[in-house]
Sequence to fold (709 residues):
Amino acid sequence: MNLIGLVLMLLTLCCVEVAGATILYVSPRGADTNPGTQEQPLASLTGARDRIRLLQTRDTVWVKIAPGDYYLTAPLELSSADASPIVFEGTEDGVTVYGGVAVTGWEAVNEHLWRAAVPIPLSAARPPEQLFVNGKRAPRARMPNRGFFRVQEVTETILSKGNGRLPEFAVQKLRLNPEEMALLENERPEFLRHAVISLYHKWDVTRKFIDHFAADSSFVFIRGKGMQPWNQLDGLTNYKIENVPTALDAPGEWIGKGDGYLYYIPREGESMDSIAAYVPVTDKFITISGDPMNPVRNKAFKNIRFKVAGYHMPMQGQDPLQAAASVDATITMDYADNILFDNCEVAHTGLYGIWFRRQCTNSRITHSYLHDLGAGGVKIGDFLYHPEDEDVSANNLVHNSIIRDGGHLFPSAVGVIIFHSRDNEISRNEIADFRYSGVSVGWMWGYAATGVVTQIPDKNGNPEWAEGQFRSPATGNEIAYNHIHHLGWGELSDMGGVYILSEAIGTAVHHNVIHHVYSATYGGWGLYTDEGASQVRMENNLVYACKNSGFHQHYGKENVIRNNIFAFNLKGQVQLTRVEKHQSFEFTNNIVYTDSGEIFLGNWKEATVQMGNNCYWDTRTKEPLFLGSPFSEWKNVKDKKSIVADPEFVDAADYDFRLASEKVAAEIGFKPFDYSQAGVYGSDKWKELARMDETREALFSEIISELEN
Fold:
């Protein structure tokens, strides 16, 4: 798919009102018993759906939504019974659909603490786990308030091994620092039972209720599946603890104590008279569920703000899974075709934003704003591999959208992830402020010819690891002209601005600007080909200010890394890990520019890599070393047509990588590209919204400085 394809796709669903079309009206002042006329409007999207079913028409139906606030207690559900093309359209930008209820009646407990009754209908149910105040997520009381504590030691007792890849049931015993745990020594036992410990290990996060806390020894016990042997909890694991009253000590924090009230420490400038606080009632806004023989077709959502949706952690907690792959989304689709979200907002969620899951085709998200997300932004395709399926999700588009500020409950979530899905386009987006990767493509581990590891549903539909001769269906995807930045935040490891997992043949990654990717330990990379990535093309990308390197290949086959700029990455500029007999990749016509670390990391000398026509420049010296060798020796080994020369950027120190002169670029065959085209386009207001808040940028720099020192 390309931008021409975008135009054609937008024409497939008529979004221009035509004479004689059926029109229904929805208003906050309406009632779902009304006929849906302008004089007697309906009150909800579900009411409009029910009225359309009664009409039994196959013509396009326009649902005109008047400005105002609408409240869901359950998601809008569309199925194959909804055969009519439907356009749900906010008549102005002031249409907001809430999946929660307002918290009112605040009163002062003392000069620093407020409380309000848990609102109906939540008071008799399980208390909420999220609170949003004045358009911001309020963190539950946590310790420490910033950063993490460190686990000292972990031992595991396996109680039931089972037949799967992981032990079926085990108990983990965590030894923690007594000084860090002093705050919990006098906590009431009933509160400790609801305390949640989040453990950050490599690329995963484990979230569990604390089963038992031994105050005299500072041991914490948790239970569930056995640890992953490839990514265990250990003495390098960071953690935080939340939802304990003794940790309620910072402005913006809140907690529910089970006594019918929510307790909140106000931020500076907040007033009880003007506070706008919400808690979720439902975790979803929309579900669209067709069937393989009769998918849901031709539905559009325009100019609608979807806000406040929740998540309740199950009693067994949340076991680790890369990219929070199994976590649901607030808007989900299965067996659907030609679904459009245009100029929509999805915000303040407990889950992912939008998921085109099983056999979703020709659908798109355009000019939309997804932010303050419990997990990630957009998922495409099923993360479970179904060998019986001939078709997978395909030909979907995420375009000119702002996707940022996620991972609040599931830090390993991704901005946009493509699982088992082909021929999708992710283009001209702003993707920023996540704790893990920006864009991820593919969901198998290894080469099909040698036995691939993937996840297949068991008889209950739960993921089970399997190995076989599977071929990745994540082919022909295009990741282009995106601005991807400020990822990692030093919390997780093994991540990339664009991360390719499995063969993913035909994937094209081009004209992206990627910067400020910072991992906890290893693996803060800009472009990352992993676990058998094959025949992937990465060209015309600008990558700078990443922790480990601008490009890294773990292992893969016949990839093309061409005509990119890699600059100012901290530990190294380009990296290779596994030496293989076949050609790993082509590395040509690139500009590599550094002022710190190494130019190359890894065993390039032994690897089969086609190299040449690259330009290298180290601002520290005119004679940089290449894996310990001077350039004259290095050229004889790998890089015969490459040069060491200043490429003459306009102002590299200020990240202006335009070329003041094209003389050096021409010598290596480098073709200048306009990297300013990466990111969203449109009105000044839209482009300004995409700019990351300066205080967030400053906080990122502050955190990285602390970790580096």
